[in-house]
Amino acid sequence: MIKKGYFIDKEKNQIYNNEVVVASKIYSNNFTLQELGQMIFNGEVEEVFICNYQTERKSTLECLLIHDVKSEWDTKYKNNICLDDEAYLNDFPNGYCFFVELWESEKGPTILVLFQYH
Description:
There is one protein chain. 17% of the residues lie in helices and 43% in strands. It is an alpha+beta fold. The protein is globular and about 35 Å long. The mean pLDDT is 91.
């Protein structure tokens, strides 16, 4: 079996680790930036992934350490998160932003996926 790592199958709307489904329920984005930060710092979010590459069918995910996300929250993430459907990169520091999705994993904890655009 060829290892594929973590990815989102956009047709099935599921997150996989290789061939195993790890999440199949996405939360609605009815949260604020402050609420998202609280979820990260109070342990509700246990896994964080970043997507730097996607096609029509698949989003490739790279695992981030939750400790690193917490330590860089104020400098790298907080001011670059977009909770709207569209963004103008010039509105964000350093010309990049993250769109976010929160998923419920099959084991229960919340998974945060950051889609980076630059």
